Amino acid sequence: MTTAVSYAFDGRSAVFAGADVCREAGLCLPDTVRRPLFEDDVWDFTEVVGLPVHMTLSLRRFDFATITNIHWRMVAKELILALLAPRHPAVALLPRAYRTALHLTSCAGRLDELIKFLAWLGGQGVTSLAVIDTRICEAYLSHRRYVTDERGAVIGEQSPGTRRRAAQAVVDLVSYRELFTADRVPADLRPWGGATATAVAEMPSGRTENKTRPVEDTILQPMLAAALYLVSTLGPHAVELAGQVREADRTTSNKAGGLRHDTLIPLAEFTELLAEYRRTCRPLPMLAEHHVADRLANGWSADDPLLPVATGVLARQAGARQFWPQWMRSLRGVLEDAVAEVGVKEVFGRDAAEITTANASSTLAWTMPLHRLQAVALVGIVRTATVIVLATVSGMRASELMELRIGCRRMSEEPASGLHRYRLASKVVKGQPLGGTADEWVVIEPVYRAVELAESLHDGPDDGALLFGRFAFTIRYRWFRNWVNSPAGQRLGLTAIPEGQVNLRMLRRTLALEMAYRPGGVLASKIHMKHIAVATTEGYASRPGGAQAELLAEVNKHESDRNLDLVLAEFRNYQQGILPAGPGARSLTEFFASVDEKLEPAAASAPRTQRSDRDVLNLLTKRAMTLHIGPANFCWFTDPSRALCLKLAGTPTADRPLIGMCDSARCPQATHHPCHRPVWADHAERTKTFLGDLGKTRRTEHARLQHDYTRALRVVAEIDAASTDPSDKDSA
Fold first, then answer.
1. pLDDT per residue over 218-252, tens digit each?
2. I want to staple 400 with a disulfide (CB 3.0 to 4.6 A). Which of 396, 650, 662, 703 is the partner?
3. Angle between helix 699-723 and 677-693 (nearest 10)
């Protein structure tokens, strides 16, 4: 047991006594909300104006009461308020104090780790901060570094982030030592030689590769296909279903106005109600399965024809708040007659409209009849589909999605006939001051329509209300996947979604990689990648430095890396005798030959020889900057005046090729490689099929298709000839 060091402490802070926490921190609160004071053991920031929507409620309440040592509780309060108010006169004088206020989220994390550290100290028998030395600091870092089982055996290691938080708790106590009233660490304490918490935790520098994994193609394809199908096909019907649920809640809920509370049987009303059901041939409302199970548990017979009847709903339709058990004797006869004539059925989704299934194999009702909870769940699944489309195709962060509000869609602009520009208004929260910064996203039409559907599905679509609010995407996605894989989703012809992790960060990274690496990949099969690229570029031009600018910068970085990888791979192919084909093949081959010559020791003009991939990439970088990826060729845009696409478009001075107009079989800057062979071979096969189906009278169409077919065969033959290994030719 260590010995405590006494300080003159009367229960009040020498610096912050009586302080209004929010006023000191510059946080705004509504006038009607109680303001947290320094002496409070719980600081409630729930109603602070401008907090981001994605910030959970648990992070908005700082609970110091969990620190049982009152001296240490005072230390924790003083430290957190100093982090929130760095310009306070007493804080500004500290040489190692932060000069910029920390966000409430960061302070909540600091407090959480400090509570862990103080609890650990208590468990070690330490009763005063004054006895902490470097040995104790090292012991705590070791305690937080490793994951142990119930027997204390090490089974793993914590992340660098966890280690950093542990080291930071100790560093903060050192940096703010002079501020504390009740207890302090020793003046000569310099844990880890004065190193920063980041260095102690061995945190990555931030210049390494992004560790967020993209969504696997096997998951992305069926997920996005299902989401687009639900938004486009089921969406309008889901809006109608949501309206039916709201109307039923208004009229048949036990909270509806005008209902009788007495136990007198409304016999006349029941008789008239059941007669109306029989006259219109409408089935009586059915109870959900769990309510049927409750009745069976209460002694109902499984053969009772009234077992599945929702008598409570009928009672409210007849004007009573509930169906009293004593009414059954008088009403059983008319109820059984009605059941025998019209039957019993789920209330929602009756007579559902027919739609075409996702696999276009048949038409069927868009939904089977549903109970209320099932209807609410289906509306929620469609709402989740709008989130998936929005996140996957726009690249918005989670915080930006949660800041969207009703009315965020800006009026569609038409800068040219038939061309539309769609914008969404939200806020950028990451790296911005409290309250965020208003921003707009230029998006493509499917995203715009998904937001429109989400607004229509909103329970309270008042202008300015949060569109999605705070939500847990991983949970909602799990429900979405389970529904798609359930009989309900398979009935609509949806492809099952495999197991695997999907979150909003992964979706944003997937979009960036798809735009940069795979312009003809999985995402492009459902959404036009060029449209997304143009929308993102327009968003960047509209507000340089905004949210879409960050996404575009990430895409450009990936695109540069992709081009370098492709050029290096083609250079290695050249060295193995696998040559490019196409009109631009000679120029590219000559360039590779010049690079290869610089790598040969005999031809080098200086003693140093460049052989590593890094040195080769340095020689290839300039040519990589001219590479543009087409669906069936590589375009080496070295000279705009030679670009066939620009000549055809009448824009010879453009600084980028028009890939959509590329005729790679004739353009002198286009090359074909083995990776393009399947595209041309498939085109030849399909063209051959079309030729066989043409009638004899369609001579013009036949001539055009025959020319395309011949050209495709020629390109395939050129690729095969250029790709043949020289050793194979010699052996032949």
1. 999 999 999 999 999 999 999 999 999 999 888 88
2. 396
3. 150
